[in-house]
Fold:
Amino acid sequence: MLSARNLSFAYENGKTIFTDVSLDITPGEITVLIGPSGTGKTTLLRALALLDAPQAGTMSIDGTDFRFPVPPEGNPPPPYPKLTTVFQQLFLWPHLTLRENILLPVRLSGQEDGPETLEPLIRAFDMGEFIDRFPNEASLGQRQRAALARSLMLRPRYLLLDEITSALDVEQIAKILSHLKTLRGQDIGIFIITHLLGFARHTADQVLFMADGQIAERGGPEILKNPQTERLYQFLSVIAAAS
Amino acid sequence: MSVFDILITYHIAFLQGLVVTLQLCGIVWSLGITGGIALGIVSAQHPKSWGRVTQGVSFGFSAIPALVILFWLHYPAQAMFDVVIDPFYTASLTLCLVNLFAVGEVVRQSISDFPAQYITAARVCGMNTRQIVRYIQLPLLFRQLLPTIMILQVGILHMSLFASLISVEEIFRVAQRINSIIYRPIEIYTALALFFLAVCLPINMLAAWLKNRYTRNLSER
Structure:
């Protein structure tokens, strides 16, 4: 399990992004993080991915502990790619085709069946038409699928996803989300930041609502039907009004 | 006397001048490029010490004409220290310094401005530092730097003509000497232009080709 306890994060200029955040990501479960823009969701994801060190708190990943602030003796090395991330901006390497982007880390990790393993994923994500293009020759939606495929090929245990369906059409979103559901069966713990409340409602095992730098409400998907806090109620009302 | 006749008649002198020019450029290119790359890497790793020095000296060299530096090192500096240095070495030192800091600054900038997100993506994909350098940073930096460094080297070849002004017997000085004997400036300087065209054009074309091939527009739609 990936457990975070009392994480707090502030920038060097003193601006606090989130305080006292605790959460668990369990293998085989989908945890959905929702909340208004600018509340620190992406910063929280980067902290959970051990990319940015929080100022306070602890994390434990399958029994390996990480303390913040980082102690003088340092923390253990992050368990990449067992823990991996797909960023909202994707960060595909521009000198490699999408296929090479996906296969390079796989090859370097020592997996020899990369090209064969990729084929089913190409079909599942409809990537056949553009898999040999460079990132700048592909649309955002195509790049999102390739970035997700790159992470999935690494067979992670914890997959952190930041708004990875923002540029996809409804059909593609359905395909990706359906694939994420199958990953749950493969004992992968998925943490996903999304604005797709329908996905959260139908698929999430745990929903976290983040507002004003804190987890304002948490629970099963039912909290989206019966919010217990005024803040989540307001958020859902705004979204309902907008849609 | 045609260009061809002049080249035939004075081919030994031209060849000697060409050898000196190529020796000068060979020294300046090899030391400037290898030293510049090393300087750029160290400067990027230590931005507050080496980085500032490289940036400052590079700004200085780009502001002062190479000819002034060359003359300064050839006349006042040698008079001050009461030494006499072969003009070939003075010219080599001057052009080496200019090339070293020009290449160093280009490399420093490219490494410093390298998009951190590509490294982050590689880290979360499980790559170690050596793999990141080899498979992500080096290929991208190579594509970015190679054409720029090649064009800098063409500039250095052009600058090597300044060496003639401190009596280095390179190709331009040889051409001037032959011209003073036979006074056929059109033919002689046309021959010289053809020589530079023959050397520089392929380098420029290669740089343009590499730029086109490797630094294609990488910006995403």
In short: Chain A has a mean pLDDT of 91. The interface with chain B takes residues 49, 51, 78, 80-81, 83-85, 87, 89, 91-95, 104-105, 108-109, 134-136, 138-140, 143, 150-151, 154 of chain A (CB under 8 Å). The CA atoms of residues 108 and 154 of chain A lie 10 Å apart. Strands of chain A lie at 2-10, 16-25, 30-34, 56-61, 64-68, 83-86, 158-162, 189-193, 206-211, 214-219.
